[in-house]
Design goal:
This protein has an eight-stranded mixed β-sheet. With about 200 residues, the chain is of the alpha/beta class. It has helices spanning about 10-20, 30-35, 50-55, 60-70, 80-85, 190-205, and strands at about 1-5, 25-30, 40-45, 75-80, 90, 105, 120-125, 125, 145-150, 150-155, 160-165, 170-180, 180-185. The longest helix is centred in the C-terminal third of the chain and has 12 residues, at about 190-205.
């Protein structure tokens, strides 16, 4: 079973529908035991960094996340779910993130006619082969194009975990892989067949 962590955020149903389309059993749940017993765990997210960390820490879901990650359960963070894995965010000064990975979340720079938040499609530059989420037909990943909705972006401390970048006034660390932990700033569930292939790869790890 694949658990999608429910902490009261929106946009969770679209992830659920994408996983169901892949023929996998999926459960949206806030229950720690269901999350612990899942074969794969997904942390999607929209909203503010500080508010979301409170929604996770108040019921103890932050410790559940650290536990399943430490046990080696395949874990995927999407959008805000990526940002929460790191140390801190300029969106919420003084609020610590989960600290599972090292890095900080910075605000996208304004200027040159860029709209903040970035809403829409952007192309990726894969780092090496992109890692396990990008294991697909070469023709599919020749020009990867994915859907973003964000005002903040990851600056990872270790460039070795970065599997793809994009440019939007800054070099955005758009996806990462570190052991059993995967995350992407963009929305694979909204990124057409390319994103669905990424989700397929994740749920079959």
């Amino acid at each position: 079973m694949i658990a999608i962590i429910d902490y009261g955020a929106g946009n969770i149903k679209s992830v659920e529908k994408a996983i169901q389309a892949l023929g996998k059993e999926v459960q949206i749940t806030p229950d720690p035991e269901q999350i612990r017993s899942a074969d794969h765990v997904i942390l999607p997210g929209v909203g503010a960094f500080g508010d979301t960390m409170k929604r996770l820490t108040d019921p103890g879901l932050d410790e559940v996340i650290r536990e399943v990650v430490s046990r080696g359960t395949p874990f995927l963070g999407i959008c805000l779910g990526l940002q929460l894995l790191f140390d801190s965010s300029e969106e919420s000064p003084g609020v610590p993130g989960l600290g599972i990975l090292k890095g900080r979340i910075r605000r996208l720079p304004e200027g040159d006619g860029r709209k903040i938040p970035q809403i829409g499609w952007n192309d990726l530059t894969l780092q090496g082969d992109g890692g396990r989420l990008y294991a697909m037909d070469p023709s599919m990943k020749a020009e990867p194009y994915v859907y973003f909705v964000h005002s903040y972006y990851l600056e990872a401390e270790d460039p070795g975990i970065v599997t793809a970048t994009c440019s939007y006034g800054a070099t955005v660390h758009a996806s990462i892989e570190s052991g059993n932990v995967f995350a992407c700033q963009f929305h694979p569930e909204k990124s057409s067949s390319f994103g669905m292939q990424m989700l397929y790869n994740f749920v079959n790890i």
